[in-house]
Amino acid sequence: MRITVVGTGYVGLVTGTCFAETGNNVTCVDIDENKVKKLSSGQITIYEPGLEKLFERNLKEGRLHFTTGLAEGIKDAQVIFLALPTPPGADGAADLSFVLKVAEQLGNLMTDYKVIVDKSTVPVGTAEKVHAAILKNSKVEFDVVSNPEFLREGVAVDDFMKPDRVVIGTNSERARKVMGDLYAPFVRQGNPILYMDERSAELTKYAANSFLATKISFMNEVAVLCEKLGADVDMVRRGIGSDDRIGKRFLFPGIGYGGSCFPKDVQALVRSSEEVKYDFKILNAVMDVNEKQKVFLIPKIKAYFKDGLKGKRFALWGLAFKPNTDDIREAPALYIIEALVNEGATVCVFDPEAMPNVKQVVGDKIQYAKHQYDCLEGADALIIATEWSVFRTPDFDQINAILKNKVIFDGRNLFDVQRMQELGFYYESVGRAVSKP
Ligand code: UDX
């Protein structure tokens, strides 16, 4: 099939590359000339495990193309995916201007039947708006389909190639057939393609992300309660997760959810609810809990250093909002840095992938270490904000030798409390006992 993907951000690039991998001819369109130049010459623009290999192979074999020209890009396409940004506007609702602008242009450019697919996360009713925007100028038949994306950063290629489900929202038989054929190679294992109307497909994405965010905020509140009642959240997590109705996954307490999806999508669903005069009470609470959670460690740190944080030096491991990505959007580490710097502390950070991105935002307000142990030099405590594998089994002798005090604040519960006690560390984590040697 001949496919066009408009927008070469995270979702667009993964979508385009993975469709090329199953033998389709894919053209990716982006207005950013620099990006298109880089991608055309084989330089990948995002960090995503496994993507580079597929990208290089499909580029070399001529199944993947990049252009800045929308007209040229969609000329022979049967399916056009819109993977454009939908950032939150001033009121928290998703801003559809990028999507609708391209839709209007498509109306002018299309010369035969095409299926236009909303891949970006867009509020309920967007497919209808996109349809109307294309119709303004269109002289040919077309269908608009809602096909939300459920990719997780870090495992996006796997998620795309072996999805738990594919959601296709359309009432058109013709579009349904095209989309079914396109996705058939991805669901061979037996996972379902779920066909539904556009509005249900659009809401499915928001409901999925909001439910997962609710699970996290719920566990974060349980963790607070564990600390207050003297219970251990790891035990409680296992205790409840063994029940199939609850499930083992996504029950890990920490310093809040971040990234490009959960914070934006929960907020957008709350705004959508408000628009139809519905007060989605649970989601408001989910957002409140997450706000507090991002700086959950700060009161603990302040309570430990009774004479204040001014002049103190902290080592911070982990900046990305989660491991295996360089994405720092809504990363809890940024809030921790801000709080510490505002208190007059010095912060030295290390992250395996995300340091260049943080440098762009935070600049020289903090120091950047070459190695995870370098930033411990002269530090009063170590703080852990992201659960990268390299932090999971560190050399505690080395930490002990370099760190000024044997003090660790861990926002991701990486270490066993008992072991830390034996090693002689003051160790505070989330929802568990404090190790006080
Ligand atoms: C998420 C959805 O999982 C994906 O389906 C959707 O398409 C996009 O949003 P992603 O943002 O890549 O994917 O991250 P995910 O792995 O889901 O984690 C989201 C956040 O939740 C991270 O900040 C993570 O640290 C946090 N989290 C996750 C927890 O705090 N505890 C958990 O148990 C799981």
UniProtKB/TrEMBL annotation:
Looking up SMART domains in the UniProt record yields: UDPG_MGDP_dh_C
The UniProt record lists the EC number as 1.1.1.22
User: Can the keyword Transcription regulation be found in this entry's annotation?
Assistant: no
Q: Which GO terms describe its biological process?
A: polysaccharide biosynthetic process; UDP-glucuronate biosynthetic process
Q: Which residues form the UDP-glucose/GDP-mannose dehydrogenase C-terminal domain?
A: 315-417
Q: Which residues form the active site?
A: 261
Q: Can you state which reaction this protein catalyses?
A: UDP-alpha-D-glucose + 2 NAD(+) + H2O = UDP-alpha-D-glucuronate + 2 NADH + 3 H(+)
**A matching Pfam family:** UDPG_MGDP_dh_N
Q: Which GO terms describe its molecular function?
A: NAD binding; UDP-glucose 6-dehydrogenase activity
Pathway(s) it belongs to: Nucleotide-sugar biosynthesis; UDP-alpha-D-glucuronate biosynthesis; UDP-alpha-D-glucuronate from UDP-alpha-D-glucose: step 1/1
- Which SUPFAM superfamilies does this chain map to? 6-phosphogluconate dehydrogenase C-terminal domain-like (SSF48179), NAD(P)-binding Rossmann-fold domains (SSF51735), UDP-glucose/GDP-mannose dehydrogenase C-terminal domain (SSF52413)
Protein name, entry field: UDP-glucose 6-dehydrogenase
Which species expresses this protein natively? Chitinophaga rupis
